[in-house]
Amino acid sequence: MKITIAQINPTIGDVEKNFDKIELAIEKGIKDNSDLIVFPEMSILGFPPFDLLNRKNIKEKIENSIEKILRKNYPIGILIGSPYYTSHGIYNSAYLFYKNTLSRVDKFLFAKDPLLQNLYFQCGNPEFVEFNNHKIGIFIGDDLLQCDNIVSLKEYLYQVDLIIMLSSSFYYLGKRKEKIEKVKNIAKNFNKKIIYVNQVGGNGELIFEGGSFIISEKGDLIFESKIFVEDITTINLENLSLNSYKEEDISFIYNGLVLGVRDYFRKSGFEKAVIGLSGGIDSAVVACIAKEALREEKVLGVSMPSIYTSKESIEDAKELSKNLNINFRIVSIKDIFYSYLKELNPSLSPIMDIAEENLQSRIRGNLLMFISNRENYIVLATGNRSEALTGYCTLYGDTAGSLEVIGDIYKTTVYKLAEYINKEREIIPKNIIMKAPSAELRPNQKDEDSLPPYSILDPILTAYVDENKSEEEIINLGLPKEIVRSVIEKVEKSEYKRRQIPPVLRIRSKNPLRERILPLVYKII
């Protein structure tokens, strides 16, 4: 049997454009003499739609699209994910169109899901569809991979000839290996070939890597689609050979973030990005990602020196912009800062406390937002995960923006991204990478004045936040007791800041909406 895997990049809510994309893929499948074309979960509407599901006009557009496919009577089987509306609720479904017939299978497994699908969809029943004398078991999403009692499905799994999984599985670093290994085990244990078709693209904070694949009855990888790009490929199920999937490395993070930024702009209708270039490593990496995603003429870097900004930082920002060939300007905040001090410090004697430090950051945020409003740019924030978790950021200052590009990346990983960007030639000036990180908000300031070295900080944050380890467990890893205690305190006291940070592109967090669902105000335990 020849199957076309249609790994497409739908836009949530844009049913008409998604349908155009679907039609083009179907035409390619027909041209390739394919028997069946398979699309990802919720391809017609896009995923995750959340409350869009409840809009009447969305329901009508989806039903019209399904009717169009039926009327066209394509000479190819079409398996596609879409909502199914009934008087008693909505189902996350897979439709099989073939000639004048229409079959439907509904999602029936709902594992623990950070996207809260169980709040929107009813639960169906395990069913299979028949196509070309094959009984095909259909699973929607990744819930089969998280099923605690897969043995309870053995009767269903044994009676089908082929398993197809329609998925919209968001990416985080390490997930592909986990996912492929789980599918391999199921295929081998039940002696079934499994076709896994995944959505690709960025949808808000979420990034979908695509990477659709096929596992043989023996548990071997025999096909893999491209990663982070659309891919419509026709294959003969009987003529596939052993394959090996690409190991995840720093390139996955970089390419995923580029895709996330590109689709954030494209799907929102935005075109231009402005970035505050401090001469530091974070803004440099964000600028590189933005240029790759949007093209050089669509990116503006702005250096906003204060009385504490070194000449080197200005020159580093300027050199970076030249290397990227992006637009660049310098807007000094010195006079604006002095005018604030004159009003706020009537004694004419600067106090030089944290209020004056943060004031500089907030002036910069205001300038970027002014440029955004006046010249139709979207502000990209440049904070990293290490700063956000410890509260080492300024509300309404360096947190200003529409999207946090590297907000899910620890500082030590930011340096690895810089090395990756410079792998062929020096794009990020060496001085930016080598100098000690500093916000330059007071004389001779360094990040390590307020935080432990990132080589110590990031392992503590990883253990505490990502791995949910206790203070005692972290100390037992050989990390300094007082530093561990101090870092945990910073994390617990800065929840209110994290709530106000812009949307973050999720590239390494397992929970795409919020890693730790905590009350806004609570007693630190």
Question: Could you characterize the architecture of this molecule?
Answer:
The protein has 525 residues and is α/β, with parallel strands linked by helices. It has 2 domains: 2-248, Carbon-nitrogen hydrolase (Nitrilase/N-carbamoyl-D-aminoacid amidohydrolase), CATH 3.60.110; 253-448, HUPs (Rossmann fold, 3-Layer(aba) Sandwich). It has 16 helices and 19 strands. The chain has a 6-stranded mixed sheet, covered by helices on one side. Strand 4 and strand 5 form a beta hairpin. Helix 5 (250-268) packs across helix 11 and helix 6 packs across helix 11 (411-421). The model has no long low-confidence stretch (mean pLDDT 92).
Secondary structure topology:
Blueprint: E1 2-7, H1 15-31, E2 36-38, H2 56-72, E3 77-86, E4 89-98, E5 101-106, E6 128-131, E7 134-140, H3 154-159, E8 162-167, H4 175-190, E9 193-198, E10 200-203, E11 206-209, E12 213-215, E13 221-224, E14 231-236, H5 250-268, E15 272-276, H6 281-294, E16 299-303, H7 311-324, E17 327-330, H8 334-344, H9 354-375, E18 377-381, H10 385-390, E19 403-404, H11 411-421, H12 430-434, H13 454-466, H14 471-475, H15 481-493, H16 495-498
Parallel strand pairs: 1-2, 2-3, 7-8, 8-9, 15-16, 15-18, 16-17, 18-19
Antiparallel strand pairs: 1-14, 3-4, 4-5, 6-7, 9-12, 10-11, 12-13
Helix pairs in contact: 5-6, 5-11, 6-7, 6-11, 8-9, 13-15
